[in-house]
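The records we work with from here on pair a chain with its fold. The integers have meaning only within a learned vocabulary of local backbone shapes. A complete example follows; check for yourself that the lines match position by position.

:::
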Amino acid sequence: MKFSAPKKLFKSTKKDSKKEDATKNETKEAKSEDASTASVGERKLFGVFRIKNNKQLVLIGVIVAIVLWLAITAVGLYAFRWENNYALQMTKYVPYPVATVNGHFVSYYSYLENVEILKKYQKEFKKVDFKSADGKKILEEIRKQTMDRLAEDTIIKSEADKLKVKISQKELDDSYNQLIKSNGGEKSFAEVLNKYYGLTPAEFKVDIYKARLVRQKVMEKFSSDESLNQDAKKKAEEVLGKVKAGGNFQELAKQYSEDTTASNGGDLGLFAKGKMVPEFETAAFALKAGETSGIVKTVYGYHIIKVAEVKGDQIHAYHILIKTKDFQTWLDESMKQTKFHYFRSI
């Protein structure tokens, strides 16, 4: 017995086969289009990174070299605490920070410059050998003192901005010229700076002396507020009363003065103009031998001055100082409250 499939079945199968072939062709074409689209996308993406000529290759090489150079220097500064001339020169032009003080950056260059100044002074003036055990201790102390000083300067600079304290170029020039004059003239001053501190007069004026003037002007702002100094002024008036009543000036200085000269009876020795702050100097040089001043206010506090002797353009004077607590108290408290972050160990 023979079996045969119905004709309709064969016809249907052929149609389905054709449909499948057509579907396959469409799928292939779609894939081909997708592949073509992907290829265009990839070319666009990677074309950004394609090096078109040797100049680009050189530029990329230079950039990589600079980044590596800066990274290696950073490792030397922060991990190995470099303090050589290379580090000084690099940090002068590349603003590596050594720390932050209340969010304000302290430049590595300022730190290294001040450390080198103190090292030079200790080496040349006190003949310190930094390779010795004592010398290493002194060096660590120099580093700490430097960071503390820079932290204070940063706090004071921030306060100066709040108080709108500014140093004009004329103020800087006049004060600096007076300093030179009182220290033997320009040539002598330059020789001392170079020998003991390794600085030129221009470097000292801009990097060191200007910060000192800012500090002094902020101190003056604080001291001008009499309401903060009522107790100190009252004490100074009481001491002045004892002086006028015939009390021994040197003994009163030992008992009441808050200056470092108190143990010597307030003895300031011989000095010429230009050595003291202006208010003190004006009052002292207006006195004759044996005369005593009233209360003289300076940035340091309330002074009572007695001139013992006049020798030409110099005087020998004693003083009693009752300190005002405003500026120094504020600075001490600010340092305690300050948030430090060191990028290298000090």
